[in-house]
Amino acid sequence: MPAADARIAVVIPALNEESSVGLVVKAIPRPPVGEIIVVDNGSTDRTKTVARDAGAIVLFETRKGYGYACLVGIAHAIELGADIIVFLDGDFSDFPEDLPELVEPILRQSCDMVIGSRMTGCREKGALLPQALFGNWLACMLIRLFWGYRFTDLGPFRAITVKALQQMKMSDPTYGWTVEMQIKAVKLKLKTAEVPVRYRPRIGKSKVTGTVRGTVSASIKILYTIFKYLFVEV
Fold first, then answer.
1. N or C: which end of the chain has fewer CB within 10 A?
2. Does residue 142 belong to any structural domain of this protein?
3. Do 17 and 202 touch, CB atoms closer than 8 A?
């Protein structure tokens, strides 16, 4: 596992986040972070310009999907020599200032992956809609039922070693990305942990829980992914 001088890169998938992505990039503590990679997932606004002006490397993935964007960011982070990759949303709902606490269990060589838990951290009123809270609880409950590991959150703010990511061979292109990563971590017997993180209402409307279609699509995909890995080896 990486030592205290490990190279850290942040990957931020972004779709039409011009109002928030610059705030996210500027709030990321440098150091310990070296590279900040924003992957524009087909934005029609000024997301790429705002991110670049804030100091990020901007890449592009025209295939719509959170997982597609993450995979592009991972590949570039590895090219740049990253040892640890932190995933962070571009909507400013997470607090990038919490990043040192997030990566600390990896830096002290006791973990392969750390999830930032919004459930155990300080969550502002209205930051998570009821459908998001229920879906998150259900997915974590099923993981515990099927594999015996207790997660409290599927939060997007997470850190993982490049070595662990390479073992996982991540593949989900859309909404199943976070749950795929957590199930694979358990099945591969990787060392995982959760740390409390702060969470606030996002800037702008959520592409997932902000619409009925997004909520239904995400719920189906997350449940499909969970049941898929009951029968698929990793």
1. C
2. yes
3. no
- Residue 207's pLDDT is 59
Range of the domain at 123: 8-228
Tokens of 46: 């000024």
Give the end-to-end CA distance of the chain in Å, rounded to a whole number: 21
Amino acid at 88: L
- Which token pair is 119? 């459930």
pLDDT tens for residues 188-207? 999 999 999 999 999 977 65
Round to whole Å and give the CA distance between 204 and 202. 6
In this structure, is residue 114 part of a structural domain? yes
Domain count for the chain: 1
Asked whether residue 34 is assigned to any structural domain, the reply reads: yes
* pLDDT of 228: 95
We report the CATH number of the domain holding residue 176 as 3.90.550.10
Mean per-residue pLDDT over the chain, rounded: 93
141-155 pLDDT per residue, tens:
999 999 999 999 999
Is residue 191 exposed (0-12), middle (13-18) or buried (19+ Cβ within 10 Å)? middle
